[in-house]
């Protein structure tokens, strides 16, 4: 039972990271506004992703390549992590010379490729390649939360062809199909002594079957390792509409459906010699802690974007967006294993739907240069410290963004954007799964995003 819960926790935490930290940096244009007006502005080929109904706003067939960097610094301060009460609620054991606090630095790239063109007065097509979910972190094997998470690496690649139809000069609609490939690599450590005692209890064996072999709980020198990897491809869809009720006003709505991922791969256990000897005494069909195939099931959320772009005058455009994300769909994660000694496990989450609200502006300095700025409040879906995972510990976020566009000529232009993201300090009081320690502490963050995008219009 302890083994199954530990393996399921790995899957749950990483998928949480993938779902709870969707990549926002899909275009350099949007970053400069803190993504205000995201589904309404329709100023470059990235509208093929944000709202395909906006393709008719482009002056001709266009292609764009975008690259963004997310630069983060994270500091964890421990505030009394303890072993499970079943094992005495003691301070989590650490190797000599290792402190309970941890610092993480990360640089994560986010690419984007877009193409859009009108076919005639009524029809248009688009294409987008993006990375809508991604995260990576590595705490190290010896940190105080190693039984919750060590290494996390996840990517979801999305290929999204779309088509749009212009009903009249005031209304256009569009939609597309997304083929989403996801992969994940997740590692953590196992308390070999606690794991042995859990298996022994389930099998009706005496405690001495572990302790006589040196398998003592809360001893970091005999930790084992577990790794889950998996990948899968799923198909979903998106729809959008663009309304222009009067000159200078654009209203965009965009919906992206959620994705039900089944990531198939392997569970790999690297057991210490004593723990390997203990489990080898079980019949092969009932032997836990053996390498096996696994399937991780997770529902990634749907989103709905309502945006407005309003011309104040010839130079100034005001922007606003309210974006809803259905994090409540991410309620339970299940892990099933080919090894019958590791029964299917489910982890319940208490995440809530969340809203991002942003406001921004574009200011046209000249025919060549446009400047932009924006601010946003991005609500966390994590309702309390016990629901927070070290694989995704962030809190409410406040965006402060600057950017601009430069037209080199009629065919070639560039967008650039910068965002500083202020993240509220996050308390964590995660009890883990049966037998695991409680990770108790706080996180401090610093995050900055940079983006650059080149656009080619074929006139």
Characterization of this structure:
The chain is 11% helix and 51% strand. With 459 residues, the protein is mainly beta. The chain has one domain: Outer membrane protein transport protein (OMPP1/FadL/TodX) (Porin, Beta Barrel). It has a 14-stranded antiparallel barrel with strand order 1-2-3-4-5-6-7-10-11-14-15-16-17-19. The longest helix is centred in the N-terminal third of the chain and has 19 residues, at 2-20. The chain is elongated. It starts with a helix and ends with a strand.
List the helices and strands and how they pair.
Blueprint: H1 2-20, H2 28-32, H3 47-50, E1 62-78, E2 102-118, E3 123-138, E4 151-168, E5 171-190, H4 192-203, H5 208-211, E6 224-243, E7 249-256, E8 259-270, H6 273-280, E9 292-300, E10 303-311, E11 316-325, E12 332-337, E13 345-348, E14 354-364, E15 369-378, E16 397-407, E17 412-423, E18 426-430, E19 439-457
Task: State the gist of this model.
With 459 residues, the protein is mainly β.
Q: What's the total number of strands? A: 19
The count of domains is: 1
Unreliable spans are 1-20
Structural class: mainly beta
Q: What percentage of the residues does DSSP assign to strands (E)?
A: over 45%
Principal-axes shape call: elongated
Gap between N and C termini: 64 Å
Strand order of the largest sheet: 1-2-3-4-5-6-7-10-11-14-15-16-17-19
Helical segment count: 6
Give the topology string: H per helix, E per strand: HHHEEEEEHHEEEHEEEEEEEEEEE
Largest sheet: 14 strands, antiparallel, barrel
Query: Which bin fits the share of residues in helices?
Result: 10-25%
- The CATH class designation is Mainly Beta
